[in-house]
Every structure is written in C-alpha cells, then in structure tokens.
Design goal:
The protein starts with a helix and ends in a 7-residue tail after the last helix. The longest helix is centred in the middle third of the chain and has 14 residues, at about 50-65. By secondary structure, it is of the alpha/beta class. It has 6 helices and 5 strands. Strands 2-1-3-4-5 form a 5-stranded parallel sheet, with helices on both faces.
Amino acid sequence: MAGRSAGCARLTTEKQGPRRLSPGAAPISESNDAARRALVVANPISGRGRGAGAAEALARELQARGVAVELLLTRARGDAAHLLRGAPGADLVVAVGGDGTTLAALHEGAAGSRPVLGIACGSVGALTSVTADEARFALDAVALWQRGEVLTA
C-alpha cells in the first residue's frame, strides 16, 4: 500500500535535533508514561529506505517522554529476532518496518512477556494498522494501557 510508505519519513520532533541513540542515552525523567526502557527494532530499508529515519524519529519521541531507548537496525533477513533475543529487558518493544520485522518482534516479545507496538513502514503492513504518522497517538495509547487506564473510542 503506497500510502503507508509515504508516511514513514514524516515523524519528527520539533523541539529536538538529532542526538546519539545508544542504550541509556536519555535520562529517565519523571513522566506519566509507564515504559521506562524501550527497544526499537527497525528494518532500515523498509518503506523504500525510509525505515531508519522513521525509527530514529520514533526513538527521539520516546526519549522526549523520558524513556531510555535502544535502537536496533536490522541488516539481513532474520536479524530482528536475533537482535531482540540479545537485547536486555525492556518495558516495550517497537517494531518499525514491514510484516517480517513486526512478526519477529511479536514472537520475541511474547517469549519475554513484553508488549509490542508495530509501526507500518513497509509496503504491505498486514500485521500493523499504525503508520509512522500515527506513532505519537499509539504511544499515548500504550502508556494509558500500561497504567491500567481504559481506552474508549
């Protein structure tokens, strides 16, 4: 679906410029978000090469919310599962890419009882309904859910 791919690169944070995204780079601040540590796994070539930029912008958004982020970029098929298996625990796993990246994150997240948010950046997106443009709203919903608040339409 071409419309989904177009939204990949547009997630940005206005107040913050680029910064180094490494484990624990952002201090954990007092905020209302329940997640304190997130793993963002991304296929950098998804969305015709826009996956890396979308994942970096999403990581910056999480850091702005006081969440420590580890950004994991895949290099080959099957890397997402391997990277997540080797990563330390997290309160949230975010998969940015297509169905393969999301499926690997769901599988590895289930093994560790970690919630997974899939962000569609590929051309198919059958497993996700959230685009990069909608990621902020999805993060709000995840935070409400983690705090035990009820979500209504």
